[in-house]
Design a protein that fits this description.
Rossmann fold; ProC C-terminal domain-like fold; 2 domains; 8-stranded mixed β-sheet; 54% helix; elongated; binds NADPH dihydro-nicotinamide-adenine-dinucleotide phosphate; binds (2S)-3,4-dihydro-2H-pyrrole-2-carboxylic acid
Length: 266
């Protein structure tokens, strides 16, 4: 994989950077770029990685990982495009941005992989979905898979599903944190100290997620096991149904996928 350059070390870029370092990649095989000098200085001090200009990074890197906001992607590609060679692999983590869009801003024939990661990568529990561009070779896709595997699970999807991936696992952690916030608030309403409510909700979430992964049981089966006839869970679930929470999730995730498609305009 050689030298990896991370362009845009914000939330997601720093998450990938820290994961690569945790997985044993030497700091001298990584370079990062940042728009704001104070952010660059902060990251250099924290991770002992080199911060360079976008052009220097493009020239130094074998693998270029683009982690700027979708709205900043066209300008970045125009800046680094002339310095991207046929031996390079370009990996984009941006929501919405298609491999075709990236390829069209680079010299002909460049290898591109589109990835949708998520922030649990920060604790090595990420979920990343990959889609190769037109010129990406199988061993280059393997390189991208290896890069993302440093921070969690990796799967491959046809690119037409990437907007759905973004709506599910890309934005997904935010929906879960939102539900957690609501459950903690409810605990406080019920008279529970906030710290205790937070511990109860967090462990319940962790336990439920572990059950899903380790038992392989369908979530409906697991939910039914909790729902005693005439009991407390049935009373709660009826309220969620009355408030159309399930339908709200479907609408919310459709909106996320629509927004992802809109962002493909750059
Ligand atoms: N956050 C998340 O959970 C996820 C994010 N993503 C994708 O990751 C990308 C980054 O998102 P996120 O980390 O949240 O956003 P951030 O705004 O935190 O990070 C982007 C960083 O890139 C910097 N930047 C912008 N333009 C340039 C440039 N030309 N050269 C160098 N640095 C530049 C920004 O600087 P400045 O602050 O000055 O704008 C910022 O620090 C997005 O495309 C997003 O779709 C994908 C999955 C999950
Ligand atoms: O909100 C966003 O646009 C990014 C993409 C997926 C998660 N965060």
């Amino acid at each position: 994989m050689g030298t990896v350059a991370i362009f845009g070390a914000g939330v997601m870029g720093e998450t990938l950077l820290s994961g690569l370092l945790r997985s044993g990649r030497p700091a001298d095989e990584l370079v990062i770029t940042e728009r704001r000098p104070e952010r660059a200085a902060e990251l250099t001090e924290k991770y002992a990685v080199r911060t360079v200009s976008n052009v220097e990074a493009a020239e130094a890197a074998d693998t270029l990982v683009l982690v700027v906001k979708p709205q900043d992607m066209a300008a970045l590609l125009d800046e680094i495009g002339p310095h991207v060679t046929g031996d390079n692999l370009v990996v984009s983590l941006a929501a919405g941005i298609t491999t075709e869009f990236i390829e069209s801003h680079l010299p002909e024939g460049r290898s591109v992989v589109r990835v949708m990661p998520n922030t649990p990568a920060l604790v090595d529990q990420g979920m990343a979905a990959l889609s190769p561009g037109r010129h990406c070779l199988p061993d280059q896709l393997d390189h991208a898979r290896e890069l993302l595997a440093a921070t969690g699970k990796v799967t491959e999807v046809p690119e037409k599903l990437q907007d759905a991936v973004t709506a599910i696992s890309g934005s997904g952690p935010a929906y879960i944190f939102y539900v957690v916030e609501a459950m903690i608030e409810a605990g406080v309403v019920l008279g529970m100290p906030r710290a205790t409510a937070t511990e109860l909700v967090t462990q319940t979430l962790y336990g439920a997620a572990t059950m899903l992964r380790e038992t392989g049981q369908h979530p409906t089966v697991l939910r039914e096991q909790v729902t005693s006839p005439g009991g407390t869970t049935a009373a709660a679930l009826r309220e969620l149904d009355d408030h159309k929470v399930r339908a709200a999730f479907v609408s919310a995730m459709e909106a996320a996928a629509v927004r992802s498609r809109e962002l493909s305009g750059g």
